[in-house]
Amino acid sequence: xxxxxxxxxxxxxxxxxxxxDPKGKRVVIDEGLxxxxxxxxxxxxxxxxxxxxxxxxxxLYSVLSWLARYFSVQSPTVRGPxxxxxxxxxxxxxxxxxxxxxxxxxxxxxxxxxxxxxxRLSKEVRDALYRERMPEVTEVSDVPAxxxxxxxRIMVALxxxxxxxxxxxxxSQGLLTRFRAGQIGYGHPDHTLGMxxxxxxxxxDLPRTPGGAMVRVVWKLGxxxxxxxxxxxxxxxxxxxxxxxxxxxxxxxxxxxxxxAAHHRPDGGVEGVPxxx
Length: 277
Prior knowledge:
single chain, mainly alpha, 11 helices
């Protein structure tokens, strides 16, 4: 099931036939449960619901995955909403899986939202949702705001990361310019790197074998991440830029991250070829 944000900027597919535990192992539940979870998820993420972003859908899917893990080990087997009992609901109040009280409280709040109006559940089950109190959250501590000294240290660290990125990309762009001008010929120590940077800058990808794997020379020079970062920002550097811009513009991090970035299409506009930034 695909969820698309109201803005259209992000989307994600949620698979209820392949729910996984935190270790990536598939959780085996009856098909009836899969269909019930998918139906409840669809109702709570519909255009008329209050879920407008992928993050909200992910939170809901996390709760349904928690329920799947719980029902997967129940005996007798739970095959659908008709098999859910009030005893199951009461057990879920203590089925924390190591979460703290605040996280468990959030899961149980979502559980109430999911099941309180579900006519496929018995009235006894729905009433049990409100038989127990929510876990008491007593360990919440206020997070103090950054003072001027802390902000200064953060800004110094951000500017350092940005300078490192600037110097690395500027040096690689210079190498690429010299390679294209014929100043780095065959036999030069930087010839192979220049060739790979040229391919990457023009196509958005590195040379591959017919099977799709990177050619051997890519691995000899450190792999695709090492090569592409010579012309692109790493995720850490991108975060540094966003944080610096939030400090300079007073905009939220999410707003800054969604701003368009100047880029070009190496394929000249043909669909299906990755973009270079």
